[in-house]
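Pasting two entries for a bug report.
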Amino acid sequence: MEAVDAVPVHLNGKVAIEDFDLTVVEAESGDKQNGREIVLGRNVHTTCLEVTEPEANDESTGDKEAYMASVLARYRKNLMERTKHHLGYPYNLDFDYGALGQLQHFSINNLGDPFIESNYGVHSRQFEVGVLDWFARLWEIEKSEYWGYITNCGTEGNLHGILVGREVFPDGILYASRESHYSVFKAARMYRMGCVKVDCLVSGEIDCADFKVKLLANKDKPAIINVNIGTTVKGAVDDLDLVIQTLEESGFSQDRFYIHCDGALFGLMMPFVKRAPKVTFKKPIGSVSVSGHKFVGCPMPCGVQITRMEHINVLSSNVEYLASRDATIMGSRNGHAPIFLWYTLNRKGYKGFQKEVQKCLRNAYYLKDRLRDAGISAMLNELSSTVVFERPIDEDFVRRWQLACQGNIAHVVVMPSVTIEKLDDFVNELVEKRSTCAIVLSRNQQIDVTDHRKPPSAVLAIDFRLQKPHQILGCHHPRCHTASRRQLLHAADRNPLQNHLSLQ
């Protein structure tokens, strides 16, 4: 199995975050985000499709069939449009599973342990175990030494991995970086575990210096650690070897810690990237999880969770109703998902995934360069295909391209289905929107933008706690340098877009 360079050969190999000057401002807490109210327990959609009872006569039934067909046709058209403008979330939309349509007539359910037969015969365990064996080879663990199953989503993989850690060490403390996926902290709440949040480096990677301080403060209790193989927002990869080294230096022997690796997206990409931290069960890790609907491209949410056989007995129990054993979290599990995963793994293989990883990394660097050339601050971790940049102030643009945002930053996740043409369309539209917003806002602020031959399109997110806004984002525009802090604050106060200020 060959690996590809994390950085395209024409680049110098440095992590592309050195001149990313945007100070990240966390989103405001409360019931509103960017003017959009979030209400739990209420339908916030503008429309919903009502379910009505069918009529008794056949003629009305025919009318209803026609109505439902038209609804589905419109929905399909909407899906095609939304798929066309999809960049903010890690889903590989480049797939064709037409050959599997023949199986949609069956209720395939993988109840219980995938390695043990059940009384329920309409299952796909043979496909599931084949997929698990493939990932076991990828992460270097023998068939006789692992246990795993195909989950309903990436969150379930994290819930299971952390649950195994908690069962191995009932009094253990969960350590996770602040940029870990929210499901990690959900697990801590569900299992009523003590949880310590560890600080991060600017890249989003776990800060092992802070990790060591917090380990030493709890030396009397075992450690359960979540290691990110690609953080949600910045795509940062925690240094697994350094995490293990930090544990050992802090006096934690291997029988006093459990490591779960959250590889939701990059868990399948890292094995094909040169110089990437190697995720392998030859190291003292307890479990690894990865999503199946992200890089693999399964059309339904699913994931893979693998742990050591020695750990699973603490969870497994007999289920007489199934004539089987069960150590999974959910009861019924989608039996179609393993077939979709098996089909893709067979079609692509290691070489196919290697090519897709190479494509994603190249296109991610292309996007980062295009954004910077347009005067937009952008960041790209060396091992990542997640490009982070200044959050657009136009919320319609954010929704159109389905961008994932946090505070004053947004990101694009470059997946195999994302083409150069789509990235060009995105950047061109972004630059146009920023220019339009800049002109409107500059008129409101009575700033003349016509006397610059080549005005930058930078739309700045200002952290008002700092004195020099131009240093925050690396903007070199003379008006940004000469404007006083009071002027900037006054302009922002008059700006209904809150802390966003545009200067051209």
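Entry 2 (this is the one that rendered wrong in the viewer):
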Amino acid sequence: MNSPQSLPALRGGRAVVNRPNKPWTVRSASQPRREARTIALTRRFEVTWLNENGDIDNFMRVAPAIPIFEQAFSAFSHGALIGTTEGQVAVEDLVPGMEVETAGGETATLKWIGAITLVPGAPVTGDEPQRLYRITADSFGLGRPATDVTLGPAARLLNRDPAIRNALGCEAALAPVSSLEDGMGVVALNPVSPMRVYHLAFDSHQVILANGIEVESYHPGPDAHYSMSSELRELFVSLFPHIENLQGFGRVLWPRFETTDHEEFQLV
């Protein structure tokens, strides 16, 4: 691909474009070189939400298949059990308006459910394929999780390792599930068939219980505003009709750390 041409240099008040000294041919005039094109990947994002009248609405929208969009829809896999006031409910059976139990012993009204389907072999925009993570029963202690649970690639778990207090200056932090992979208690899976994954959102950032382990609800993070253009930001916010702008997500309940920060910690 030809490199983009720079702005013309100015000489004596006139613009001069420097061109390569190359002979003219009929081929170059009648058959210009075709520029390689980057194909923008998109996917279908499905949303179910509780509107201001207390009714349940839903819609499907096609949007860019880029990490900041996909991470908003891919924390819980089919079959993950979410604690509610009605008992344990599989994530695929949740309905906006349900009262979900939080890790702090309170409840929060479920306002939004997002879902996408991960298709094996489909093109991805990231460096690695989209994986699921199976956490086996009691891997983090008795009943944590109570039974095996499969989480999506965007899941973050609350980590209360004492080392976090020294390293980050807080009592706990949210760790990406990928950073906990050890091949035994937390196993990465490459699905062989299409898998539906979900994320959940409330009026504010929450930590909820999935099969007994503490997993965060969706929040784009405090720096999301700076990671998107205004046009992309408008499209992104349109996927969350229960808020008006990114500030509607509120503050992040716990700090987050990435895989590279996590090497010396253990989930407790």
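Dev reply: Rendering is fixed now. As a check, the viewer should reflect this: The CA atoms of residues 8 and 17 lie 5 Å apart.
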